[in-house]
Specification:
single chain; 270 residues; 10 helices; 16% strand; globular
Amino acid sequence: MTETTAALEALLMQRSLTDAQLQAAAEAAADFRILPDATVLKIGGQSVIDRGRAAVYPLVDEIVAARKAHKLLIGTGAGTRARHLYSIAAGLNLPAGVLAQLGASVADQNAAMLGQLLARHGISAVESAGLSAVPLYLAEVNGVVFGGMPPYKLWIRPSAESVIPPYRTDAGCFLVAEQFGCKAMIYVKDEDGLHTANPKTSRDATFIPRISVDEMKARGLQDSILEFPVLDLLKQARHVRQVQIVNGLVPGNLTRALAGEPVGTIITAS
């Protein structure tokens, strides 16, 4: 046992878990990266999967080709059906925890569909409990599909402003990447990346190839491309210190991003 570990164990036996000295000692302990060679992909629900065959089939082909050289954890968004459910549930005055369960069910449906399309290539979909088997899937076929909604369900922390769950599939996929200690987090959406305004509605929107979390917040862009909590999670992360957003409707963009090219927008922690 190292001196640092011994000191931490002594503090754990003597102090409250919220004690500042104990927390500092825990922070100083070495952190083990579980899957440092893997990349997490988040396939957008509304931006990609909801568009159907024309958008999904070319991306499936690109994923199949890419997994020859890359280990891929493929998370799915919830998309339009979840928004419809949120609307009904919020109108019924149901709490955020119920909405989180409804959103997770749609993300899981999208994972099931994507998993069926990839099944002939040996890539399976797993539910949240099945994430413990991810290393085996990656060792055998270099890929696995999962629903991107974090499994907080009734235990989700509600937003102060709304009953819409603040931690949705963008956050869920990032948390998987960070907790597994993965090398990269790539969001596959239907836009070229971050812009100064919504490019779908503003002709004056200017593309931003690279930006930090603090710059995004200073410019009021914190809720323009990713779920707001992802930026705070990125700032606090130990392993995943940047994320990349690419347009998955453009053939080759995902392959380029996996190869380390600066395609799309890169958002950095600092």
